[in-house]
Amino acid sequence: MNTTTFVSFLFFTGLVAFLTWWKTRGSDVDTDEGYFLAGRSLTGVFIAGSLLLTNLSTEQLVGLNGDSFRDGLSVMCWEVVAGISLVVLALVFLPRYLKSGIATIPQFLEERYGRGVRALTAGIFIVAYMLILLPFVLFLGANGLNGMLSLNTRFGVSDYTMIWILLVFIASLGGAYAIFGGLRAIAVSDTFNGAGLLVGGLMITYYSLQVIAGADGGFGAALQKIHEADPDAFHSLGKADESTHWPTLFTGVLLLNFFYWTTNQQIIQRTFGAKNLAEGQKGVLLAAFFKILAPLILVLPGIAAAYLVITVQDTQMVESVGKTAEGEWDSSRAYGSLVARVLPEWLLGFFAAVVIGSILSTFNSVLNSAATLFSLDVYKQYIRPDATTKQVRFSGQLCSFIVAVLAVIAAPLVFYGQAGVFSFFQGLNGVYFIPLASVILLGLFHRTADGRSAMTALVVGLVLMVIGTFFGGGDDGWLNSTFKNGFHYMGAVFLFLVLLQLAMVAMGIRRDEPYQQRDAKLVDLTPWKPAPYVGGFLVLLCLGVYAFFAV
Description:
By secondary structure, the protein is an all-alpha fold. 76% of the residues lie in helices and 0% in strands. α5 (63-71) packs across α16, α7 packs antiparallel against α8 (115-149) and α10 crosses α16.
């Protein structure tokens, strides 16, 4: 790493930290609402920025580009379909959440189903964040940075050792935001980092296409070269041998997107901090627009990397990407290798700072969500109901620290050496996404389902998803032979859990009185008038993108 790269890295990292401090100085972090929900003061721009960067981290930047390296444009479903899910959040779910004045999804589930469901769902979220989401973000972040800057070579250590060093560095830096700054510091830093990520991501796409086109060619020539080498590269509907075969758009892919963007605590917590419903809807719909455009930076570079490695056999790329023990190209290294190959040396420091920012965004957001869940749904409810505000806040900080340490330990153990790591990650997410989605959906739209049916669905769903995910027998096992794709299995389990709850209601296992949502009167619930029209336009845009690339 030359001096220019190092200085620019420190400058941009320090600039975001300074601007975050400047914007949040004097903020209330001494109360539950101030620390966990930014004092319910977030406006649309900060909500959109935080939503985007909490999501647009290394799991997409490195992971999704890695999958597009293998499967092409079809993996854009994780981004484009998210636009539709965010429209549903803005128009359907957010008004209900803000009406209840909740800080966590389990808090809503207690209001709807009872204390037992609240405790179980809080525990599921915390364990999943600690063993699945955070390790994935940390591992891909460390792996991506190592590939971009060739740090293991520069420092003369093994690839595995350098990943461990980077894991500890990222976790230490990210923990400071989450543990001491609260949600407002996270949302503000996310917005600044988000701007850098959009600029940096577009630069990678620009330089990648420029390298492919050559000195005399334009972007059209670059895209034409890729299409001629692999006609399937720009096809939106995945084939049977791809991780997102097109029928999965209507089963597991749709459900995972739906849960992630409408009911996942880590994501929607920033919408709970909205100043009012109108600002919340503006922020969510703005985020939806950018998600539809996200394949420009999250999918196209991976396709470009595949062309340089497989078609051109670019020496630097081939050596940097390498192959796994199974003899396949190591797609998890594709994005970092591409950045090192196409980005000018003087911009590497800036982009490394952007990547660090994107990692920290998701990392500290998840830590803050885990702290919120533990403090408000476990500590204050069961361990110390009479706790002071200071004690509650300290319990959250302690939870953040423990979760961060365990996530660092789990990261290389779970994900090191995995091929198609993004699809593998989504499969792990399904273990808890699917049961929780079925219960939350019934809770919002069925007035007589009660806590007994919810608890049954959660336990049965977790068991079924663990069996399918870990004991499905691999590519030639019973799961693929029966359902053709693991994402179809998720859809089948979800449908079964919904029918199970409805059957229990039909058998008389129901609430004595139909559920009536109360208005906590904490924020103004006047909707943003253009929201339905903007939402309709965004749905049509999503469908249009798919139709355009389907032929």
